[in-house]
Amino acid sequence: MDQPKEEDEYGYDLFPERNKEKYKKGSITESLFTFNHKCQVMLQFALETSPYAKLLLSAMKSSGCKVFKERHFSCEDCDGTVSGGFDAASSQIVLCQNNIHQQSHMNRVVTHELIHAYDHCRAHVDWFSNFRHLACSEIRAANLSGDCSFGNEIARFNFGVKQHHQECVRARAIRSILAVRKINREEAEKIVSEVFDTCFNDHAPFGRIPHSKKDAKFAYREYKNRDQYYANL
Ligand SMILES: [Zn+2]
């Protein structure tokens, strides 16, 4: 398998095609099994060790949406360079086992999709007919998952960290919408602009933009403390 190309080329798809019949037979089946096993192992590791994932799982549990690994995650083969998706109809997170090869990438995809699942849990998100809802969750996922917190040092150097981050979030949200809805770029840009400020500033359940694993760890600890405080009342 090819190594992942540029980090920025990873697509996120809210509702990837889930056609099980596409699985090929023969020797490929064997490698698919290996991919599937590796995907499961990396998923387990992400759920147990990533502070982003742990915080989101705790927050969902508190909101009455307990997540089960076997029920709510599915490692599957996906088209193109899609990394993952959230299937609102089945409340399942799809992880693209043929496109995720590194633990750090798995952690980001799990976090990104858990933010959609969190939004799905806490709000009555109208994924299908209200593009503003979809845009808002994509902005939040790009902003809070770490998708935009790594990488292009030159861009950061040129434009400053803050502006680079915002532009990255905007661009990723637009791309995610275009990947799953038949609308043109202009429309997508307009919708993202309309909801950008509100959704960019909604940091729940992190309380801040976690720019690094360390930030996420702090956010998780704060969340735990708050939870403990309320539990004691
Ligand atoms: Zn997304």
> Taking all residues together, what is the mean pLDDT?
85
Rg over CA atoms: 17 Å
As laid out across the biggest beta sheet, the strand order is: 1-3-2
The separation of the N and C termini measures 53 Å
Which characteristics define this entry?
single chain, 6% strand, disordered N terminus, binds zinc ion, three-stranded mixed β-sheet, mainly alpha, metalloendopeptidase activity, 233 residues, globular
Structure description:
This protein has about 230 residues and is mainly alpha-helical. The protein has one domain (about 10-205). The protein has helices at about 25-50, 50-60, 70, 105-120, 130-145, 155-160, 160-180, 185-200, 215-230; strands at about 75, 85, 90-95. The chain has a three-stranded mixed sheet with strand order 1-3-2. The longest helix has 23 residues, at about 25-50. The chain is globular and about 45 Å long. The N and C termini lie far apart (about 55 Å). It binds zinc ion.
